[in-house]
Write a structure and sequence with these properties.
The complex is a heterodimer. By secondary structure, chain A is an alpha+beta fold. Chain A contains six helices and 15 strands. The chains are: A alpha+beta, B alpha+beta.
Amino acid sequence: MQFNKKLPTIFLDSNSEYELVDSKVNIVLSPSLYWVKKISLPVKSVRDTLKLLPSIFEDILPDGNYSYYAYKNGDEFIVFAYNDKFILDTISQKGISLSNISNIYFAQTEITNLESAIKIDEKQSIYIKDDILILIPCCWIEEKSELDFSDIKHSKHKITIHQFGHIVETKSLYKIGAILVVMILLLSSEYFITSYKSSNIISAKDEIFQNYKLKSTTFQNKALLKKYKNIDTLQTKIREYISYILKLKLQKAERISFISFKNKKMLISFSGVSKSREDVIKKTLTSKGINFKVKPTKDGMKIEVSL
Amino acid sequence: MNRINPLYIGLSLVVLLSFISYKLNMVTNEYDVAKSEYKETLALANELKSLKNVYGDKKRVKKSLQKILNHSSLRVSEINKSFTKSTLKIDAKTIDVKALNFLMGKLLNGTYQITNIKIKKLSDLRVSLELEIKW
């Protein structure tokens, strides 16, 4: 809990030297780490101003990815541009761990009441000119005091450094995140819908067992079905073959004297059938796809059909 | 600057997405299996029900056979019929061809499980008959 705890403040400048810091600190950025302007714009809100800042700073910024900040100061706006990566690199060079940084401020917003120049190191001082805090060489002004942040009360103008702003734009990150979240939501709803459908179909399957009074396992039911199918196939064949036999066109003296069926074997005896007629009957039965054996008898022939 | 690294958030989202995809894939497979099992069970149940009604309904088969055998066309014929728990045996030493045609027409056109047939011609108008029907 840091609410009531006053943290030390470091003035961060690329030319200054620091002792390694192990505790939490606030950082005040030197004017060398950002660009600042005081401008009048025909807009009312800071939000609208922020949209215009890339084009306002376009001419003075070197190539790179920049973040922007603005606040209203009377009728005018104080606007900032800063390079996240450059600030991060400077923090890193000074041996300050990012996890130890509580808040980051601009020197412009934190150092407001300067009566004279303040020395920040052996070579540079800061000085306020036309409401803008500027960095000047030490030799320009002789009377200067030391920088002291012991009694500083920080403003509300803290900024956030985007660590990956130089790799992916924040907007793109949000877009990618939003797409991932949407996909997660879609897949999650698909998951719940499919689970629901799956459980419904499982209950419907159980209902089939009850409604059709099936045996408890599919295996038993399949075996039972196989048994009935075999019966049905055999019974259909019996009727089919008897029908073929009875439809045979026999001549006057020819008769069917015996028909039997047992143990999947059908026997048909013909009487008064001559040798030539035997061939005709055999041919007819073969044409119906019946497999049979022929045995000659005293007055005709006997046909044995395996079903 | 104590912000959560967006890379960690992105990575967590990707991991979560992968996990949900994996779970979805599993549940989709389960659903497909359940669906095909349901279809298979329904087809099996319908087929089994219709075949059971045909060959497994003992009461219906027995009642229908009794009706055929009590028909006026067969009354004059000397047909011995014996019903057991699961079979009907018909035995006629001699039977008229017309009665035979009637009986066989009914039996062969009906859905009875015939296990034994023996028809022997005695003369042009008479035959002997042995039949067994199971249910």
